[in-house]
Amino acid sequence: MKAARYFERRLVHSAALLIAISALAFTISQLAPGSFLDEMRLNPQISAQTLAGLRAQFGLDQPLPVRYFRWLKSVAVGDFGYSVAYNMPVKKLIWDRLGNTLLLGGAAMVLAWIVALPCGIWSAYKAHRWIDRIFVACSTLLLGTPELALALLFMLIAAHLRNANSDAPTSQQAAASAVAEIWSPAVVLALAAFPILFRHIRSAVNETWHSPFIQAARGHGIGNMRLLFRHSLPAAANPLISLFGLSLAGLVSASFLVEVITGWPGVGPLFLEAIYSRDFHLVMAVVMLFSVFLVIANLIADLLLYAADPRMRAEC
Fold it and tell me: What is the pTM of this model?
């Protein structure tokens, strides 16, 4: 029952947060100067009557609160509106590209955690040794390298792989091309996320490794490996679970820039084009979908914390 009440409270908080985000994003986008129709005014073949009709059709002549509640009502039934730039419903535009973005962000997150978790644990265990200094130096180098430079570097590597397999059989060329297309942006995102994950993991494990209860257990003759895996890592799990939720949402939203640079057919290029063309409904749909994803990722992290930490269960 406690878990159900905790889950209900988190759902209510998440819903309130999403409503606040939607109201803020809607107001900012509406107060921004210019609209898609303003660009149409520059076309002498479009009459003022046509523009007035379009304003009435899209509800732009209504007050801001009325437009917001109409938009909120349509979103509640899964209708994200109509894209004036692409002349089609937004949901038809966005779902296929959303799948590509989630695939890229998910692959990058798995790759980043697979590399950062053992490196961070081992670096904390061997703190101030040569292996620790190598990992810290690598993370510092990656932290100071822009994603743009990493993306360009891996685009060159992908082009080299395609050229190297130009004389190979067709099936091998297709496999090399698919690997280059999918994994080069995923590796770029994983390398960009690695320094942050590595430093948080190293810090959390290092703090528990030098805590008094570990020192007391060591005084009773318990071996280092047992201390590390049975006692230190479970104590360091709380901040890492919170970090997992943030990284899950952060890697997906951070993929926008890499998608644009590498030409990955995700939501990033579509979002950028929607901003340039002032396609309001498409911009709002992308903002809200990724807000929902961020809230869900944090909700999952909270539930994992509730399951892992008895102190949270006692407080509820």
Answer: 0.79
